[in-house]
Amino acid sequence: MKSSNQNSNVKMPFTRRPQLILFILTACCVISMGYYYIKKENIVSVGQVAGAITVPVQKGVNKLGSIFFNFDQERLSKEEAMAKIESLEDENKELKEQMVSYDQKIQEYQDMRELLELKSEYADYDTVGATVIFSDMTGNWFSTFTIDKGTDDGLEVGMNVLSGGGLVGYISDIAKGHAVVTSIINDNVNVSAMQSTTGDACVVTGDLPYMKEHGLLKLQYMDTDFNISRDNVIVTSNISDRYLPGLVIGYAQDVTVDENGLAASGYLKPAADFKHIRNVLVVTTQKQSAE
Fold this sequence. Notes:
Strand order of the largest sheet: 1-2-5-4-3-12
CATH superfamily of the largest domain: Rod shape-determining protein MreC, domain 1
Distance between the termini: 138 Å
Domain Rod shape-determining protein MreC beta-barrel core: 136-283
CATH class of the largest domain: Mainly Beta
Function: Involved in formation and maintenance of cell shape.
Oligomer: single chain
Coiled coil: 71-119
Shape: elongated
Number of domains: 2
Organism: Anthropogastromicrobium aceti
Order of helices and strands: HHEEEEEEEHEEEEEH
InterPro entries: Cell/Rod_1 (IPR042177), Cell/Rod_MreC_2 (IPR042175), MreC (IPR007221), MreC_beta-barrel_core (IPR055342)
Radius of gyration: 48 Å
CATH topology of the largest domain: Thrombin, subunit H
């Protein structure tokens, strides 16, 4: 019981403190009003006192609100900026894709124009356009490759293949929907050729290692009294058993008489680009049927 009374005695001052504070404030207000009516001059009202307290508080609240508002605005601005950046990145990606598509279309157009020019150049022959779908590339060189046309398109083994303004090779194997082309840069591939204007005979010989290193084929078996100069056009000859006559092969380079003085030889820069073959023109006229 004694302990309980002590606890209650301790708590009472705290329970009465609000009433005491209210009483003191009320008394202050009454005294201030009375003093105001007595003096009516040089008096500081309760409102002024309250204002002196509340105005700084209000300014602090406004300042704090402004800080939070600015922070929120800054956060929104950052979110808007990030959204704008993402939007621009998407647009940039789309533009890049459009540029790639545009470049591809330009390349396709150039390839088709090249084939049409080639077709018009060999208008005496029937031709079929085809696209390269696979290449057994040897050091980035199209030594053997596959096209997307075959027997279903009227093609046959032995037909000549053109690209880039000149002879590429011949069809060496075929199926219904595709055909394999062996190019003239392969080792041991020989093409009976001649100078386009004089008819001086020669043989263009494939040499893949030399082609890789120098980008040239070999010109061989020419007479010592040859009339072939640098950059003369070399075409397939009439005596070729595989290639139609008059197909451009390339351009003569560095023709000289051999050391033994019995023959002349040189090099040939191919008309076709054997590093970049995308589309070809197959001459459907065979050598046997042309004769």
